[in-house]
Amino acid sequence: MVPMAKTNEALKRGSRKTIRSNNGVGCVVSHYFKRTAKSNSSQLHHLPPDVLRSILLRLPFRDSCRMGLLSQKWQGLWRQCCSKVIFTKATMFHSADIQRTRANFARRVNNFLKQLCSPAILNKLAVKFGMRRKHTCHVDGWVQFCAAAKARHIKLDLTPGMKGLAKSSPDDKYIFPMHVFSGADSSSVHVKSLYLGYVSLHTATAGFSGFANLKNYPIQCICHG
């Protein structure tokens, strides 16, 4: 049995940790650092950028967002590798920290998008929350963000809960702004899949020629106008 004194002494000395990363030319490089109670956070901060990005990519969406708030360096790395954003009740609200209202949900999504610089190509943006037509100013902004970021996969599921569904009327449905994708930059050609839930479509939108490269188009509770 190892004496307790020696065990404590070993813990104070710390232990060596190995993290492997790619150096950009196909070779795996090992990074060694000494782990102690006082320097854990600073050692993580000083790891190579490719290692930090790898860490962020492996975290759940909400946890990676929190990491982006630690420092300017983490925020910059988070913006670089955040190609998929998912806004749901689970990702926008903690257990019981705030009222889960549409107004609070919209405010949190807006605050998030303000922090995120539009990447060259956004792989996916998903929204799943029971928004209504009176929240058009918010949802329009999210759709415009998709177009500006040339999002490939867009999911906009605004289906309310069972109680809201029973009380709702067709006039409550958000009108999807097709014209947003009819600009000179042809952002519609980047869209590969489009999921729309509980929205209205005005198919006769002027200047909109359709999504030329759309491969997947699930629909749910959509009214065509």
TrEMBL record:
PROSITE patterns: FBOX. Signal peptide: none annotated. Coiled coil: none annotated. SUPFAM superfamilies: F-box domain. It comes from the Eukaryota. Residues 41-90 form the F-box domain. This is F-box domain-containing protein.
